[in-house]
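Task: sequence design from structure.
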């Protein structure tokens, strides 16, 4: 349900270009698209225009793009992994993970539907009265839509609070149907991307898996096992992707696939994950057999994690670059789970398109903006010559390129009217310095499709004159001044939705985990002190890793 404001939007102030430089410009957005970008302050006089004149200490960035996120987990508390693993299939079978994350998720999915009737009942009653139907005839299908809406809005809100305007397919990856978008653009909806409606972006969790008849050991005692000889089988998603490529990419406009997620052998030199290495070898072997050698180049393929590739092998780098394959780098999750990550500078030097992704709340960043900040720290600690402009591109231009050169990630005529307005520490601070040092309490507003969907309450109250809902006080001090504008047609109550989430979480953590102190991840990183401490500890871990 992506909508525009219905009114032209004119933004006047400091604007960031593709190199991270700022200059004063005037931007006009109509029907969700940028139509004009002019130098200087030239407020446009149009009927019914919304005028946003920025203060000297405010700056406009393109809306941020996150191609690696499992948004249905955004509300989860941080997971304390019992080990540093070699391969992703190990922790997926770990008893603690299954109890604290997988079963927790299943509990929420099941009981949210069963326990949410108080939330949806007024809507159901209204619909029943309007259509002169018995309430029970409407209950199940309508209630399921309302529950999905409740879950979707809450999980997407964390993204827009961090300046994200386009996210990897919201809710469950690999779902066949186009899932609705409530606040942000969604790679699962062709309309949101401006691509042919007959095509889709295919989001894949696994191309290959261990097996058949083999379960990776999830005991922490086996966390450093040699996985090289694990049996391997293709997942049906690989066949789907391969079929599309062989038929001139007739089904998929782009594909985002998890591949070779495990220990990289970069920070832990000489210790790459064997199964991950074999994943890529098998993947490459099959694709090398495609008769049309140019088809893969047109597939707009992105590999997520891709830690297990042998990046010391020039032919591997050539294969990625020559076939226009992008890589999504998620250093926070990589380091927390595997104590390792990719040699990002080597990829950049070879001309490979690299993006940043936040992964998920249990072991990742709050949002892709926070992932950029950690990536800056990582590059500094390892003395990697990666500029701030390179990092900005990883969450703006590069993911737009990965998706097939969609009209996003830049502030130029013809591009999406998606923006992220940030308050700098001072008027003299550079835009990129502000991006690296300010936190999400300094977000002035986030704009999607020319519509201001999130930001400071005073902006909504004094300039926009649109309906909005405050973030509950329970979200913290910074959140107290923030509001969100949700399409009125959704009949959505944020406070009730969060209360519902909190109630279900308390039930599970108390009854199943006996850990009643566990709480939902707060929406803003600046208000989430447990999350902040986790990132500080990770920086200490990184410092220890590079000593050895």
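Answer:
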């Amino acid at each position: 349900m992506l909508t525009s404001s219905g009114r032209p939007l004119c933004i006047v102030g400091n604007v960031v270009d593709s190199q991270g430089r700022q200059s004063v410009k005037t931007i006009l957005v109509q029907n969700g698209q940028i139509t004009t970008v002019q130098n200087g302050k030239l407020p446009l006089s149009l009927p019914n225009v919304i005028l946003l004149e920025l203060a000297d200490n405010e700056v406009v960035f393109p809306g941020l793009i996150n191609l690696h996120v499992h948004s249905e987990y955004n509300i989860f508390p941080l997971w304390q992994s019992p080990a540093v693993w070699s391969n992703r299939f190990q922790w997926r079978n770990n008893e603690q993970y299954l109890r604290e994350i997988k079963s927790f998720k299943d509990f929420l999915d099941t009981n949210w539907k069963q326990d949410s009737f108080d939330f949806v009942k007024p809507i159901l009653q209204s619909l029943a009265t309007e259509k002169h139907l018995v309430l029970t005839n409407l209950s199940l299908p309508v209630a399921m839509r309302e529950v999905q809406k409740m879950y979707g809005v809450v999980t997407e809100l964390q993204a827009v609070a961090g300046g994200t305007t386009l996210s990897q397919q919201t809710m469950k990856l690999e779902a066949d149907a186009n899932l609705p978008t409530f606040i942000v653009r969604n790679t699962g909806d062709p309309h949101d991307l401006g691509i042919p409606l007959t095509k889709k972006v295919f989001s894949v969790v696994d191309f290959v898996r261990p097996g058949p008849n083999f379960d990776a050991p999830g005991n922490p005692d086996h966390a450093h096992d040699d996985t090289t000889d694990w049996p391997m089988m293709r997942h049906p998603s690989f066949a789907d992707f391969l079929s599309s490529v062989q038929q001139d990419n007739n089904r998929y406009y782009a594909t985002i696939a998890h591949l070779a997620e495990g220990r990289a052998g970069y920070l832990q030199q000489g210790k790459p994950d064997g199964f991950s290495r074999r994943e890529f070898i098998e993947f490459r072997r099959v694709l090398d057999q495609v008769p049309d050698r140019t088809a893969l180049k047109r597939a707009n393929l992105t590999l997520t994690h891709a830690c297990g590739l042998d990046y010391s092998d020039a032919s591997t780098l050539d294969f990625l670059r020559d076939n226009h394959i992008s890589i999504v780098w998620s250093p926070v999750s990589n380091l927390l789970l595997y104590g390792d990550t990719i040699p990002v500078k080597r990829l950049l030097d070879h001309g490979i398109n690299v993006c940043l992704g936040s992964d998920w709340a249990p072991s990742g960043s709050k949002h892709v903006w926070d992932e950029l900040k950690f990536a800056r720290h990582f590059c500094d600690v390892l003395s990697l010559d990666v500029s701030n402009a390179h990092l900005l591109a990883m969450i703006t231009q590069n993911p737009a390129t990965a998706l097939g050169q969609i009209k996003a990630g830049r502030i130029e005529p013809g591009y999406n009217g998606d923006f992220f307005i940030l308050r700098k520490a001072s008027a003299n601070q550079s835009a990129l310095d502000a991006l690296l040092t300010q936190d999400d309490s300094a977000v002035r507003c986030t704009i999607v499709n020319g519509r201001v969907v999130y930001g400071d309450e005073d902006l909504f109250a004094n300039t926009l004159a649109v309906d909005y809902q405050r973030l509950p006080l329970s979200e913290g001090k910074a959140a107290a001044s923030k509001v969100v504008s949700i399409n009125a047609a959704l009949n959505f109550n944020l406070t009730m939705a969060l209360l519902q989430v909190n109630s279900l979480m308390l039930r599970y953590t108390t009854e199943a985990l006996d850990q009643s102190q566990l709480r939902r991840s707060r929406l803003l990183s600046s208000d989430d002190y447990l999350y902040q401490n986790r990132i500080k500890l990770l920086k200490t871990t990184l410092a220890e890793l590079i000593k050895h």
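The chain has a mean pLDDT of 90.
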